[in-house]
């Protein structure tokens, strides 16, 4: 069996209108972090997995954590695809970021 390291991207929209919604959001986000997900942007988190079947474990975990009014999308991308991601920013919020296995962020 050949292993190809992948990233699981978790993108979500959760309501924040009531106190209960806000509580559900905090619980969902804390569970993402405790399961090894890292924030890429607001409401977009990722986690490195050795292969797609290993990512299915986290898919199962997230399915049971989704708030009733929430919407969550998972996307599996190869390490190569993730490293080729382009960051486009305007001049006001200029940031330089290195995507991939090197975890260097210059702000």
TrEMBL record:
Keywords: Antiviral defense, Endonuclease, Hydrolase, Magnesium, Metal-binding, Nuclease. Coiled coil: none annotated. Pfam families: CRISPR_Cas2. Mg(2+) binds at residue 13. The keyword Nuclease applies. Its EC number is 3.1.-.-. HAMAP family: Cas2. Belongs to the CRISPR-associated endoribonuclease Cas2 protein family. CRISPR (clustered regularly interspaced short palindromic repeat), is an adaptive immune system that provides protection against mobile genetic elements (viruses, transposable elements and conjugative plasmids). CRISPR clusters contain sequences complementary to antecedent mobile elements and target invading nucleic acids. CRISPR clusters are transcribed and processed into CRISPR RNA (crRNA). Functions as a ssRNA-specific endoribonuclease. Involved in the integration of spacer DNA into the CRISPR cassette. Homodimer, forms a heterotetramer with a Cas1 homodimer. This is CRISPR-associated endoribonuclease Cas2.
């Amino acid at each position: 069996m050949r292993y190809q390291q992948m990233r699981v991207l978790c993108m979500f929209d959760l309501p924040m209108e009531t106190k209960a919604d806000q509580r559900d959001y905090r619980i969902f986000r804390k569970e993402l972090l405790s399961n090894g997900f890292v924030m890429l942007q607001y409401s977009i988190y990722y986690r490195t997995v050795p292969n797609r079947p290993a990512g299915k474990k986290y898919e199962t975990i997230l399915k049971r954590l989704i708030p009733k009014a929430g919407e969550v999308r998972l996307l599996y991308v190869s390490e190569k695809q993730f490293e080729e991601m382009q960051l486009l920013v305007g001049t006001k919020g200029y940031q330089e970021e290195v995507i991939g296995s090197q975890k260097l962020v210059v702000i």
